[in-house]
Amino acid sequence: THSVCFHTRCSYDWNRTWHVGNPDLTQCFQNTVLVWVPCLYLWVCAPIYFLYLKSHDRGYICMTHLNRAKTAVGFLLWIVCWADVFYSFWERSQHDSGASSSSTQAPVYLVSPTMLGITMLLATLLTQYERLKGVQSSGVMLNFWLVAVLCATVTFRSKIIQAINEPWTVCVFRYTTFYIYYTLLLISLLLAALSDQPPLFSEASKDANPCPEIGASFLSRISFWWITGNRYKRPLEQKDLWCLNSEDRSQRVVPSNENKLNNLLLPPSPLSPRPEEKTLYSPKKAPRGERKEGVPVEESEILIMKTPRRRENLSVLGPLSHLRPYFLISSLYKIIQDILMFVGPNILRIISPLLSTSMFLNMYRDVQINLNLNLKVLKLYAWELAFKDKVSAIRESELRVLKKAAYLGAISTFTWVCAPFLVALSTFTVYVMIDERNVLDAQKAFVSLALFNILSMVQVGVLIRSGQQINRSNQSICSDSISIEDGVFSWCRNDAPHSEEVFVRIPDGSLVAVVGHVGSGKSSLLSALLGEMEKLEGSVSVKGSVAYVPQQAWIQNATLKDNIVFGQERKESWYHRVVEACALLPDLEILPAGDGTEIGEKGVNLSGGQKQRVSLARAVYCDCAVYLLDDPLSAVDAHVGKHIFEKVVGPQGVLKDRTRVLVTHGLSFLPQADLILVMVEGEITERGSYLELMARDGAFAEFLRTYANKEQEDDESGDILRTEGEVLGKKAKNAEVGRITEADKANTGRVKLSVFWEYMKAIGVVLSCVSIFLFFSHHFASLFSNYWLSLWTDDPVVNGTQPSREMRLGVYGALGASQGIAVFCYSISVSIGGILASRYLHQSMLYNVLRSPMSFFERTPSGNLVNRFSKETDTIDSIIPSIIKMFMGSMFNVVGSCVVILIATPLVAIIIPPLGILYFFVQRFYVASSRQLKRLESVSRSPVYTHFNETLLGASVIRAFGEQERFIRESDGRVDHNQKAYYPSIVANRWLAVRLEFVGNCIVMFAALFAVMARESLSPGIMGLSISYALQLTASLTWLVRMSSDLETNIVAVERVKEYEDTEKEADWRHDQSSLPPGWPTAGNIDIRGFGLRYREDQELAVRNITVAIHGGEKVGIVGRTGAGKSSLTLGLFRIIEACEGEIHIDGVNIATLGLHELRSRITIIPQDPVLFSGSLRMNLDPFDGYSDEEVWRALELSHLKSFVSGLPDKLNHECSEGGENLSLGQRQLVCLARALLRKTKILVLDEATAAVDLETDNLIQSTIRTQFDDCTVLTIAHRLNTIMDYTRVLVLDKGEMAEFDSPSTLITKRGIFYKMAKDSGLV
Questions:
Q1: Which of 159, 633, 848, 1291 could cross-link 1060 (Cys pair, CB 3.0–4.6 Å)?
Q2: Cα–Cα distance between 575 and 568 in angstroms, integer?
Q3: Hey, which bits of 43-151 come out as E strands?
Q4: What keywords were assigned to this record (predicted)?
């Protein structure tokens, strides 16, 4: 019976494959399997691929020369296959006619060409369908042509052998068609490896610098050829980076991940406990009411929000579910790799009679410190060393954790390195000891070692589970503009209520004033309206869009114009009106670039009043329905406050038709309010109009009679505010002059050797040498143990046994033990060295940062500092030591392998020079690109931190204005900008891996080939050792290239940390030999002579030509409009800014000759911005622990905080949140007063210290200052002129110069600037 192939004898021709010197496959196999495999592949893939293309339409590709060539070659292949079919029919017809007497032709000559021809037609049609669907390069078709070429190559070789050995059997026609077919297959494979042009109207064409991956061919993608270019010849710059692919951008990735994470939450069960309730601020369109512009009013409501409970046991794979296809593919390849890993040694066992060798495989394997401190306050109090010690203490606790991790890591390294050896030792011991006839030869030894070493490749991964809550809300409708019914609120659900039941109804368009003592709950009421507090009971609703002005102004790091417009549409006429109403026109004239001046983080280059007015202008410009104003007038001068109230908030202001809730301590504004709410301890005790409350004669009326000034006169005061035309006409200012912050810059070129030397010095030269010696000891012991094993396998067998096996086994075990000890010791030494280096570098960076002047912090974004103290420090902590271990291990492996190979098999040395050249060029390209990408990625990470920090600080303002989406988009944009450098660095890493693995596998092939060639002259043991190290050399060289590049890439962290060594520094904190007299200053005399200073070299003098003599014990008030130079003068007194001209003498000592701490610790300031730090209340009062608890309590009593602190659960140990946010602004200012009372120096400076407290508390503070600092010199910068009317003298500043200086009564008599300010305040 004839087979479908050829005839029955074909099934017995397998001896041609396995038992001949020149193996070949049978004709039967070639005509069936090798032809059907590519056909089967395409027919199986085609339906799935067709459905995929149908659902993923990328556009239409016009017919190109490449596509025409593919189509033409496909049809030619189809014709060639059908030529074979017709020729087979012709042969059969000749046989039927009796022309041939040979056996009947097998059906395979008809079936296979027919199947192949139909398959080629299918391939051609698929190529055209790909073009219609916008596929530039197809992996399916490339794989098809590759499989077809590989299968045809076997047949091609077989036909050549047959033509040489059996020329009489050659069929010329079939040979001719096959060679044409094979040539066309090669052409098709080449064409499939090329990429077509982009589809019409593709998204990629819109990018300025599109990523070449989009248009790369499939072969280029899997081999990462698309990243190869000439850019390594010069340092990479930001402009060289490609745009992210659309599927990798945050706007696509983040929503997808968010949805996946949200789906992990189970819906609440009907039987589950009642879900938690929270408050939500939600805007919606109201069914009635319109603004005057005709735009429907939005209704915003504070509603009950039910939060579903988080599922307790969240799946660890849940957050990664959207990556499931990639994990499945990766898992499949990993399984294949593991199978090949275990099959490899067994294949070597099969061919070991020929090679007598085996493979020898080897494999080598965050707490952040956020320095977000207000450095200005630390410098004013001379507290840098105290906080340096606090940060160092936190750092030491982190280093202790790292040290424990180092010990555990050393044990882990010891375990993984020694495990294969211990298994091998125990196995060899048992094998040779249980039976004397068991002989350990090269085949058993080296194949076993290859299998045992697989154990060292086991790794353990840890996934950190994260989750996210989903918030849902219901909605309702309210009638009043603002309504609170029986509202009870707290800052945290588990805390006690912060307020009693609050009931408020505020009609549309009314002006409501909220008054009360410090800590009475005024700001909390506004927070409740904004939904920032937990609503425990009742209901709250706010109709219309909301604008919010916080008590402490939140200013973005942007231009003044951008801060005011705040993402809204630019309306020039409205903008000009807002700027004029908020009294910003004179400031625009002062600022270097007008409204194009960049404002630093937290408004560092603006005064307190300027920041508050910019914050108010932002709210006014947004033109909302409801305005919540948290004491915006406290930080501005009296006449400016009067102007703002009249032009903005009052009955005739631009907001007259809006609903305004004004928290204020200014009594002069109350008569014009429609409704006054009086708050005491979180409860509204009185409400009504000004006349109604006075008529009731209650606590409010009594308070007014005690503290109110006489009525302000109606006649116009001399307004010093400029007109719009004067300032806005001055547009010719260069915007570049207004820049203040400096972006992080990336270095270029190779990392300097000095950086490596600095790191080595930080570790310690002795410890570095010890570590190198331990590395050498470990690898020498490893090399000698394998050499000893090769000698053991070469021992002669006497009477079926090896006589010296006990000695061999003992030495082998001792060498293994020495390896383990060396591994453990070098792991410990390198890790401890890394910790020592990290401690030194962190301490030096912290010291250098604290020694930097304030100008450094004004121009350096906080993200730059956070980046270095977090990510770069983490790299130094964790990554660099492990890279050093792997680099040293790889280097010693390479050296040891080369020595063994050159001694044992000199022939292998032929491949070492070409190998070295190849690896050199690979490393040159990779390191140059990867190093610079790391720098660019580090630089682009800082703006992400800066924006995130800024957004957190202004979260309540952003939510109030409904600008969350804009800030999210901005954050996503900065993250994408960072990923533009991070993504190519990952691709470059894979580029390196593919090339190193490819070259390495070529080396394996040549090593085996040379071993076979020299098998006659080598003993089996030496041959096994040589090829074993040849294979190890491949892995070691791969790791050496990768680790050397990773070392240079990550040492950039040390380079960036050391950058702060070269920044400008302040004067010395203390001089070695101080000439100060004991107890200085004793009198408190201040003599200012021709003093002037400027903030930056390229700016004009902020204060100039100030000459003042202040006697000891005098009380001097410093006044002037916002930006006149009042705070600048105090900064010069504390040498926060050094003088450009003139001198300041205190008790006859020139302060410029003193150390900064010697000066600042002997004078005291209560700063304009009351800043508290994270920590206990006592630490905020006395960080050096220099005072007793009795003294601290006394200071609290004098600052009127004793009752408040006594009521706290932890009293002095009460934990203050970052910035003191869990205390009101007034309470924070009282804490600053308590600091001053503790220090009790001869000179006290109050920089608008009582601006945020009510009049009664202000009166108590002034009384305390008069009694406790009676013999001290007091300089007070004040907006409330009534607080300084009884002072000895008043210094009036205007535009940075001294305008007036005399007693208050004399200045009023002169009717100058001070008289006008007093008149505006109702004092004259």
A1: 848
A2: 11
A3: none
A4: ATP-binding, Membrane, Nucleotide-binding, Repeat, Translocase, Transmembrane, Transmembrane helix, Transport
Residue that wins the pLDDT comparison between 707 and 945: 945
Gyration radius of the chain's alpha carbons: 41
Residue found by looking up tokens 């051609």 in the block: 124
- Please list, in sequence order, all residues whose beta carbon lies within 8 angstroms of the beta carbon of residue 187, skipping any fewer than 6 positions away: 69, 73
Q: How far apart are CA 140 and CA 122, in angstroms?
A: 13
Q: Please provide residue 802's backbone torsions phi and psi, each rounded to the nearest 5 degrees.
A: -100, 120
Q: What are phi and psi of 1276, to 5 degrees?
A: -120, 120
Please, which residues bridge with residue 1247 across strands? 1277
Question: By C-alpha distance, which of 266, 278, 261, 260 is closest to 312?
Answer: 266
With tokens 């070392």, the residue in question is 1047
Q: What distance in Å separates the CA atoms of residue 1292 and residue 1313, rounded to the nearest whole number?
A: 8
Task: Give the residue from 545, 550, 538 showing the smallest Cα distance to 483.
Answer: 538
Can you spell out the DSSP letters for 1092-1157? Answer: EE-SSTTS--SEEEEEEEE-TT-EEEEE-STTSSHHHHHHHHTTSS--SEEEEEETTEEGGGS-HH
Query: Listing from the earlier edge strand, what are the strands of the sheet with 675-680?
Result: 546-549, 626-630, 659-663, 511-516, 675-680, 683-688
Residues 49, 52, 54, 58: is their CA dihedral positive or negative?
A: negative
- Cα gap 536→489, rounded to integer Å: 5
Residue type, 20: V
C-alpha torsion sign, points 251, 252, 257, 259:
positive
Distance CA 1290, CA 838 (A): 53
User: What angle separates helix 805-850 from helix 765-793, to the nearest 10 degrees?
Assistant: 160
Q: Which amino acid is at 1161?
A: S
Residues 6+ apart with CB under 8 A from 693: 676, 678, 686, 700, 701
Task: Please tell me the distance from the alpha carbon of residue 768 to that of residue 336, in angstroms, as a whole number.
Answer: 41
**1093 and 1102 in contact (C-beta within 8 Å)?**
yes
Q: With CA atoms as reference, report the closest residue to 1290 among 1133, 1247, 1298.
A: 1298
Burial class (CB in 10 A: 0-12, 13-18, 19+), 1247: buried
pLDDT tens, position by position, 968-1008: 888 888 898 888 888 888 888 888 878 877 777 777 677 66
- Residue 487 has which token pair? 């509202």
pLDDT digits (tens, 9 = 90+) for 915-966: 778 777 777 777 778 878 887 888 888 888 888 888 888 888 888 888 888 8
Q: Which pair of structure tokens corresponds to residue 590?
A: 């002062």
* Alpha-carbon gap, residue 1018 to 901, rounded angstroms: 12
Q: Which residue has the tokens 């019409």?
A: 200
Under 8 Å CB-to-CB from 506, ≥6 apart: which residues? 480, 481, 482, 483, 512, 659, 661, 675
1231-1248 average pLDDT score: 85
**Cβ neighbours around 855 below 10 Å, total:** 18
Beta strand 1103-1110 with 1086-1093: parallel, antiparallel or unpaired?
antiparallel
Angstrom distance (rounded) from CA 133 to CA 131 = 5
Give the C-alpha separation, 208 to 193, whole Å. 27
CA angle 63-69-75, nearest 5°? Answer: 105
In tens, the pLDDT along 129-181 reads 988 888 888 888 999 999 999 999 988 888 888 888 888 877 888 888 989 99
Residues near 305 by beta carbon (within 8 Å), at least 6 away in sequence: 277, 278, 279, 280, 471, 472, 473
Structure-block tokens of residue 219: 């072969």
Residue in 32, 33, 42, 30 with CA at minimum distance from that of residue 192? 42
Cβ atoms of 693 and 686 closer than 8 Å? yes
Q: What is the rounded average pLDDT of the residues 1126-1146?
A: 87
CB atoms within 10 A of CB 1258: 23
Phi, psi of 940 (to 5 degrees): -75, -10
Tokens of 517: 């003592």
5 pLDDT above the threshold of 60: no
As a whole number of angstroms, the distance between CA 413 and CA 17 comes to: 47
